[in-house]
Design goal:
By secondary structure, the chain is α/β, with parallel strands linked by helices. The protein contains 13 helices and 15 strands. It binds uridine-5'-diphosphate-glucuronic acid. It comes from Nepenthes gracilis.
């Protein structure tokens, strides 16, 4: 038995004993909070949710300075303005919409996971552009509910512009789980937080023209069937529309889904045909141009980014409030879906001809059979619903829009210094 004076004193003084155990308990509680609660302003690991991404990431967020930036970015600076959480803010459409909202005085907070589906340095350049406009983009994943809850605690968003998604029709064959992760699990994760927020935000989000799938009735109207998706990407977007219906029905969340038709323009996505055709024409590489099996034309209703941005703002401006509070529905809420297209389908071979003229380089064309990996032959939007509801009126033809894209492309990848991958 230990007979040291310390031991004796330990046993004999209840006050010392109490102090010691109080100290130990506090230390344990502190360690627990530090490790497990990112909402306390520490570190959140989104990678545990994200086994499908090629680069697993850990995001840092929190702390008083971070909260101050979030609050300031989301602050409304104009009468009757809105405070919008934009997911996928460092994406193509996200950047344009965030900047447009900020410029007119709305509060905007960006959220993006900066994944490596395509060159993340382009996303960082977009983030820097947003920063200059006054938009702070938080680095994080929509599957990270602790982060989302924290954002809603710090800022009171009136709207969510949900653009974060795994895009691309053909890539779904290579990495199917990334579509489920972002477009289904991520969407549900976001809606779980939105439905419990007080007040609930109104949600405007990106669906896709691809939901029309094998539908052959043109132009595509919102009333046409969308139960024959031709790719997993399309299936996850269609699932999103059904999930929106459920959250609208159960919780009174207000939803506007926007079916975008092949959006293109400056700061665009390098995985899209007009973008990598430009790169490959300049490099002298051959361009695979898809042809339909019957010798028919493959065409798209290419829609310029400024027209899409106006459509997004129109949808936000006419979105009604959600009706629920604290996770409970109080009445029926708005549920809308709109085509946002250009109404002028252009054959892919014509797109290449326009690029040849703008770049002053002859393309090496290779005809290829339309692969059976999700591509559809033709898209054409009927936009009368969006026209009626919020005056959507696209004004940019493909020639004009591509001219602006090429100008941006050449200046961004100045004389091959940055070199598009
Ligand atoms: O409208 C939409 O909802 C979709 O638009 C695009 O999908 P897509 O129209 O297939 O756009 P691209 O991949 O840029 O293809 C444009 C056209 O070029 C054709 N193409 C593509 C690649 C290629 O190597 N050759 C080729 O001829 C495609 O068949 C298509 O007709 C986007 O990539 C999707 O994320 C978006 O949801």
């Amino acid at each position: 038995m230990d007979k040291s004076p310390y031991r004796l004193r330990w046993h004999s003084s209840p006050l010392v004993k109490l102090t010691f155990w109080a100290f130990v308990s506090l230390a344990v509680i502190f360690m627990f909070l530090f490790r497990s609660s990112p909402s306390n302003g520490m570190v959140s690991s989104a990678s545990q949710f994200d086994s499908s991404r090629r680069s697993l990431r850990t995001f840092s967020w929190g702390g008083p300075a971070w909260q101050k930036r979030v609050r300031s970015s989301a602050r409304i600076r104009v009468r009757n303005g809105m405070s919008v959480l934009v997911t996928g803010a460092a994406g193509f459409v996200g950047t344009h919409v965030s900047a447009a909202l900020k410029r007119r005085g709305d509060g905007v907070l960006g959220l993006d996971n900066f994944n490596d589906y395509y060159d993340p340095s382009l996303k960082r350049a977009r983030q820097a552009l947003l920063e200059r406009t006054g938009v702070f983009t938080v680095e994080g994943d929509i599957n990270d509910q602790a982060l989302l809850k924290k954002l809603f605690e710090v800022a009171s968003f009136t709207h969510v512009m949900h653009l974060a998604a795994q895009a691309g029709v053909r890539y779904a064959m290579q990495n199917p789980s990334s579509y489920v992760h972002s477009n289904i699990a991520g969407f549900v994760s976001l809606l779980e937080v939105c439905k419990s927020a007080n007040p609930q935000p109104a949600i405007v989000w990106a669906s896709s023209s691809s939901v029309y799938g094998l539908n052959t009735k043109v132009p595509f109207s919102e009333k046409d069937r969308t139960d024959q998706p031709a790719s997993l990407y399309a299936a996850t977007k269609k699932a999103g529309e059904e999930i929106a219906h459920t959250y609208n029905h159960i919780y009174g969340l207000s939803f506007t889904g926007l079916r975008f038709f092949t959006v293109y323009g400056p700061w665009g996505r390098p995985d899209m045909a007009y973008f990598f055709f430009t790169r490959d024409i300049l490099k002298g590489k051959s361009i695979p141009i898809f042809e339909a099996p019957n010798g028919g034309t493959v065409a798209r209703d290419f829609t310029y980014i400024d027209d899409i941005t106006k459509g997004c703002l129109g949808a936000l401006d006419t979105a009604e409030k959600s009706t629920g509070t604290g996770g409970k529905k109080r009445g029926p809420a708005q549920l809308r879906v709109f085509n946002l297209g250009n109404t002028l389908p252009v054959p892919v071979s014509d797109l290449v001809s326009i690029l040849e003229r703008l770049l002053k380089v002859k393309a090496k064309r290779t005809a290829m059979k339309l692969p059976r990996n999700g591509d559809v032959q033709y898209t054409h939007a009927n936009i009368s619903l969006a026209q009626r509801e919020f005056g959507y009126n696209p004004t940019t033809d493909l020639q004009t829009g591509l001219k602006k894209f090429v100008k941006w492309y050449l200046s961004y990848y100045k004389s091959g210094k940055k070199g598009a991958e």
